[in-house]
Amino acid sequence: DTEVTQTPKHLVMGMTNKKSLKCEQHMGHRAMYWYKQKAKKPPELMFVYSYEKLSINESVPSRFSPECPNSSLLNLHLHALQPEDSALYLCASSQVGLGGAKNIQYFGAGTRLSVL
Amino acid sequence: DAKTTQPNSMESNEEEPVHLPCNHSTISGTDYIHWYRQLPSQGPEYVIHGLTSNVNNRMASLAIAEDRKSSTLILHRATLRDAAVYYCILRRYNNDMRFGAGTRLTVKP
Fold this sequence. Notes:
Chain A contains no helices and eleven strands. Chain A is mainly beta. The interface of A and B includes residues 31, 35, 48 and 56 of A.
């Protein structure tokens, strides 16, 4: 099973709402990632978790709050978003470390978020 | 941060080979060269990766220059299903993987 599952597939929220995006994998990967992708642009790295600890935060605004409750789950909590935060949010996972198959990232299909 | 430079777009005819170039002149000794592709309405998909030697797998081949400052992804026989955005990425030691602008490949029947 090389699947990364993201829910929901689509989300529409108002600027005062609180919502969460969920990502799940059962490949035993200990590194998990959030990316943001605007239309016709490449994915931008937001956060990296390694062994359930936040290892990279790309100066993302605090209205995005990541959480890694266990080695299979990754959440992205959203609060007081702006319309410019509308984008495709991608989750990925990989093994930790360099070399061979450990390098491969597996991506989910993403959550398409619209902020009104 | 090490960056990659790719052509914005390329075209190919179906069943012909395609060579997708990537420049990464600031690559460091521990950076792996990765290629991913993204089909419409999907998340990125791993294609191939390498460190110093050329690599082959069922999807493609990766040719890495001797000085590692450039690489080329080779699709041996392009099909319509290969139409996608191809990203050349330098993966750092700490799981840091940042996408460049990518090359949009169009395959003509």
